[in-house]
Structures are given as structure tokens and as C-alpha cells.
């Protein structure tokens, strides 16, 4: 053992000495104590003694074989790559680094070499495929592991289907197909090929075109005034379908029916000039229009004259069951526009009129013939028969053959009418009215029941309203209304 005394240095008033000792490998190997070979530095002076910490001396080494070599792997795109590496035993402990394709791999991005010296790539890319080597080294030696190959593969994916191809036959039953390719993406680095069929086939049925063909000719027509006859045929045997060709030739045939011996003197229609045909058709059109206009005008005039002749002094007596609600009475409607009033009611009918008259309304009593002639009155109403629907009683109103002297008004007293009304009966009376024949006579009469109604004198605007319920249910009244137009009542 040799001791080298270092050069004394002053530092903050203290003297510092450095000493060094060399220990050989043989000395360490020959030491067989309970502990490792160690060294200790001791310093002393007149002030005392001081000892340093123990310095253990061991023989450095690095074994040749790795405890775990990395293994090759295959991962899909964006998968995780994990390569395990356990370096060989050594003193001091070996440091580990990774090589990719014989180049040092930097621990950056998705690569992690911390922990147990494993190589971890969290999201593998295609560029991460390669040969990886684990390297362990210390002060003694540098060791390399077996090379591990990492493969990042891509499984194939189908592209979209192409359009169906045309049917392989022009008509009839055939086949059409469509295809796809395993290029979305294409398989790489041993990736799996696409599963399924790359071609699909389907049956197709194209309708065949049918060319048209003529049917049989029809019989010849009768000989015309132009000494011609015609016949026709149709393109229906068969009809052209699905783009087939139409029939060739004409559908109409014309033939001379006299063997060329036609003796007609007038010009044939097909020989006439187009201007003559057009002018003759125009004349016929205008003549027809003129005749139609004249006919319509004459018809309007005739209807107007007829209505005027029928409406003079006339009234229409109609069944008012659709207009009245409480009884079956007459609805008097004058034809003159100056009298819009009608006898109507909103009640349901309870009497039925068995006859309808279109003569002017007048009393049942006969008026003097001279008075009737002077006032232009028509004949009185004929016998009127009224049936009560509810009570089935019949009422007979008879016209009286009684006449009065000229200028005298008849005195209408109560005239009883025989009735049978179920629980009770009531006589019908006619009001006493003075009639002066010097002015036109305006009068009206009707039978009313429980439902009521309205009695209207034509051409006067005067009416009498019988309210609903104003007459007992089992009773009917025949009412008269006459207008006296004398200067003093």
C-alpha cells in the first residue's frame, strides 16, 4: 500500500490534505470477511483523531445475458405497442436505452421508456413499424438484447358499391351486377382482408319491344256521292309496346266503287279548292249563330207576353205546408211586383187542402153579375173541401147562389157550419162587411187552427196575424177580410 501526501493548501486558515489509495482486484478477491471489502480514512493530530465513512470496494461486472429480451409484436393502427426489457445483472446497475433500426430512440411524444425499462407506444402509427433493440451498459461493458420486430398493420375496408350495371341481355331475363373494392383502406403490413363479397349479382327482366302489326281490314263502306268507298284497319295485332315500331302503311284505304264509271256532275270534295271549303264553312257557322240568336229573342218575347197575360188580376193559390207551421191554409201570392206580401207562417200544418186553385180569391157568396163584370172579377171558387188531419172532421164551405141589387152591400150574418171537433164544437161566423161595388173589391179568406197563421189581402199590403195558441186546439175558424174603399165607412 502506498500513501501519497497531497500538497497543503490554505483555505480559510485551514490546511487541507488529499490522500489516495489504490486497491487491486486481487486484494478484493482474496478478502473473505463477513462484509465486503472496505476502506476507511483516519486523520489524527495533537488535538485528536477523526475517521471518514467506510468506502466499500467491490469488483464491477455486467453479465452477458438479459433477464428478459423484448419480443416482436403486431398491433393494428392506433393500437398500443409494449416491448419488455430486463437488463442483465451488473455492478453498478446497468443503464438501458432503445435502438430502432440501429438508431438511438429518443423518449419523446407517445414513446415512454421509463419504469421497468419497457418501451411503450400508446398510439401506434405506420411509421412506428421497425426493429427494436434494448441496450444495457455500465462501467464494465455494453450488452445488446435480441432484436424485436414491431409491425403496425391496417385491416382492409370496403369501398362504396358501384351502380348496378345494365342488364346483360337486351330483353328477357338477365343478370346485372355491382362491385366494390377492399381499398378503404387497403390492407397493409399483413392486415386482414375485407370480409364479404366484392361482387353482387341480381336478376333483371327487361321487357322486349313489340312491333305493331295491322289487324284485318274492315268491310267496305257504302258508296258515297263521290263514287268512293272506304275501309279502315287498326294497328292492334299486336299494338306496338315497349318502344316497338309502329305499323307501316296507311290505316285508311279508298277505292272507286263504280269501276271508273262515276256519272256525278258536281265537284268532288277532295277536288274543291281550300278557299271554297273554308268560305262555305264560315257561312254555315254564321248562319247557325244568327238563327240561334233569333230563336232565343223570340222565346224571351213569347215567355214575357205569356206571363203578362197570365198575371193580369190573377193570384196563385199554393199549398203553404212548406211555409206555414200551424195549419193548412192558402198562400196568396200576386203576380204583380208591387205586392210582395204572401200569407205564410213558421208553424207546422194541421189542416190539409185537397185542391189547389189558380183563380182570383173571392167570397163564397155570389155577387151581382153586373158588379162582377164592372169590377172585372172572375167566377167564385168552386166547392172547397178541407180535411182536419188531427180530428178527421170534414168542413164543407159551399158557395151561396145568392145575389144582391146593384149598389147594395150584402149583410153577411153568421152562417153555422156543421162540425164535429172531438170534445167540443164551435160555429164558424163570417163578419158583417159592407161592400160597395163602386171601387175594386179586395178580400181574402182562410181557415185557421191552434197553430195560427197570417191572412194577407193581395195587392194591398194588409194582413191579419193569428198568433200561435190564439185558437183552441180542438177548434178551427174560417176568417174573412174585406177592404171597403168608400170615402166614408
Word description of this protein:
This protein is mainly β and 489 residues long. The chain folds into four domains: 9-59, Immunoglobulins (Immunoglobulin-like, Sandwich), CATH 2.60.40.10; 62-153, Immunoglobulin-like (Sandwich), CATH 2.60.40.10; 230-262, no CATH class; 311-489, no CATH class. The protein is 10% helix and 27% strand. It is built from three helices and 30 strands. It has helices at residues 25-30, 274-311, 369-374; strands spanning 9-11, 14-16, 37-39, 42-45, 48-51, 55-57, 61-62, 73-76, 81-83, 90-91, 95-100, 103-104, 111-112, 119-121, 130-137, 142-144, 148-153, 172-179, 199-206, 228-232, 252-256, 315-319, 330-334, 351-353, 384-388, 394-397, 442-448, 453-457, 462-466, 477-483. The chain is elongated, with a radius of gyration of 68 Å. It comes from Champsocephalus gunnari.
A few lines on this structure:
With about 500 residues, the chain is mostly beta strands. The chain contains 3 helices and 30 strands.
Q: Main sheet, how many strands, which sense, barrel?
A: 6 strands, mixed
End-to-end distance, in Å?
181 Å
Q: Helix count, per DSSP?
A: 3
In total, the number of domains comes to: 4
Low-confidence stretches: 1-9, 266-272, 312-438
User: Could you tell me the radius of gyration in angstroms?
Assistant: 68 Å
Classify the beta-strand content into a percent band. 25-35%
Note the overall shape.
elongated
- Average pLDDT confidence is 72
- Would you report the number of β strands? 30
Global structural class? mainly beta
Helix percent reads 10-25%
Notable traits:
disordered N terminus, 3 helices, 489 residues, elongated, 4 domains, mainly beta, six-stranded mixed beta sheet
